[in-house]
Amino acid sequence: MSSRAVVLAGGKGTRLRPYTVVFPKPLMPLGDYPIVRSALRLLLERQPAINIVGENANRAGAVDRASEPPDIILIDVDSSDGPRLDFLPKLHTHDERLAFFGRCVREGEAYVLGRGFAILDGDWLTHLYVHPDEIGTGVGHALFEHVKALRPQGFQFWVFQQNERARRFYEAHGAVAVEFTDGEGNEEKTPDVRYRWTSSR
């Protein structure tokens, strides 16, 4: 029996609008799972040994709850050759950062998508990370929209004031700056700004 299969998950989802304005068609829920996951589950029931490799057009698949840190993402956090926040002091080693994010994923409410993740703690978005190579592919948008769906009553988060790209991203997604500090309260002692997102409905 063949160990390869193709699951067709294309289409713009025009007949499912306005729902597909935010969620790609393959991610629309069918029962308790996205459409594409339901198809994969049926496939695995018939051939459990099949190898599955998935990638969609905008690199954004289903946002999964994580209980263990994916190695590729944690390595990317500290070893990327892409844009960095050069204005921040380097306070920790790579191993310390791995241990920290591993603990955040295991003990917190973490969601992973491609080479990005979001971590929540109550009404706080404590981390939202997208690998520099994935910026502009829809990963950050999908993660932030997922957090908005999980916290419809609103949530808040901190951003360094000099991180202008991130601030533009959050403001474009409806977040509002509500507090500016001189950085005395954060580990890096770098000026930051507290943002809050609340539903307009």
| Overall domain count | 2
The CATH architecture assignment of the largest domain turns out to be 3-Layer(aba) Sandwich
CATH first level of the largest domain: Alpha Beta
Strand order of the largest sheet: 3-4-5-6
Q: Looking at this structure, what is the CATH superfamily of the largest domain?
A: Gcn5-related N-acetyltransferase (GNAT)
C-alpha Rg (nearest Å): 19 Å
Report low-confidence residues grouped into runs of 5 or more. 48-60, 71-75, 78-83
Number of helices: 5
Instruction: Determine the structural class based on helices, strands and strand pairing.
Output: alpha+beta
What general outline do the C-alpha atoms trace? globular
Descriptive report:
The protein has 201 residues and is an alpha+beta fold. Helix content is 28%, strand content 21%. It has 2 domains: 1-56, no CATH class; 64-197, 3-Layer(aba) Sandwich (Aminopeptidase), CATH 3.40.630. It has helices at 35-46, 71-79, 94-107, 139-150, 164-172, and strands at 29-30, 33-34, 64-66, 109-113, 116-121, 124-130, 155-160, 176-180, 192-197. The protein has a 4-stranded antiparallel beta sheet with strand order 3-4-5-6, with helices on both faces. It has a 3-stranded antiparallel beta sheet with strand order 7-9-8, with helices on one face. A two-stranded antiparallel sheet has the order 1-2. Strand 4 (109-113) and strand 5 (116-121) form a beta hairpin. Helix 2 (71-79) packs across helix 3 (94-107). The N and C termini lie far apart (52 Å).
